[in-house]
């Protein structure tokens, strides 16, 4: 586990950007959480990869993939992993606090007023609009991250196959994620291990 003084190196050997302190993690994840109404994943990719450059796109995909396999909200798991990566337990707690504090306050306030205004047509329309925006952000993020699959050891065909299976199982057959994620995750891990072993034999 990296310490506060140990640089985290990329595969090229250069030290990437990193948060200056646990407080930097707290503020970054607070800002991230406040932008993430309806889905924070797309915002997390923009903040952590494009703006802060704490992670490469490949590292973001790998970390998020692991976060999906762990119990709990995906982006909360990601914040814990990233905080621990840079500052150990202090960083993990700081990132988690930033991720949850302001959303918790906002949810409590909104819950106090929701019953009074839920029947208003304008409120219902605004919530439907937020759902559409959230879906658009997810699709845009997926399109931006697609080029990283070129370096995937499974190759584009297997990646497309697993993506199609995930969409079919969840969107068409309505199977619960509790079954789909472990099943496809283990299958993808096996295919990737076979592809890596074949690549190493051909060297």
List strands and helices in order, with pairings.
Elements (H helix, E strand, L loop, with lengths): L21 H14 L5 H11 L5 H13 L4 H44 L3 H25 L9 H18 L4 H26 L1
Helix pairs in contact: 1-4, 2-5, 3-4, 6-7
Overview of this protein structure:
This protein is mainly α and 203 residues long. The chain is globular, with a radius of gyration of 19 Å. It has two domains: 1-150, no CATH class; 152-203. The chain starts with 21 loop residues before the first helix and ends with a helix. α2 crosses α5 (121-145), α3 (57-69) packs across α4 and α6 runs antiparallel to α7. It has seven helices and no strands. The protein has helices at residues 22-35, 41-51, 57-69, 74-117, 121-145, 155-172, 177-202.
Radius of gyration: 19 Å
Give the termini separation. Answer: 31 Å
> What number of structural domains do the residues give?
2
Low-confidence stretches: 1-15
Order of helices and strands: HHHHHHH
Largest sheet: none
Strand content: under 5%
* Structural class category: mainly alpha
* Amount of helix: over 70%
Number of strands: 0
Give the integer mean of the pLDDT values.
Answer: 80
Helical segment count: 7
Q: Tell me, what's the shape?
A: globular
In short:
This protein is an all-alpha fold.
Write a concise keyword list for the protein shown above:
single chain, disordered N terminus, 2 domains, 203 residues
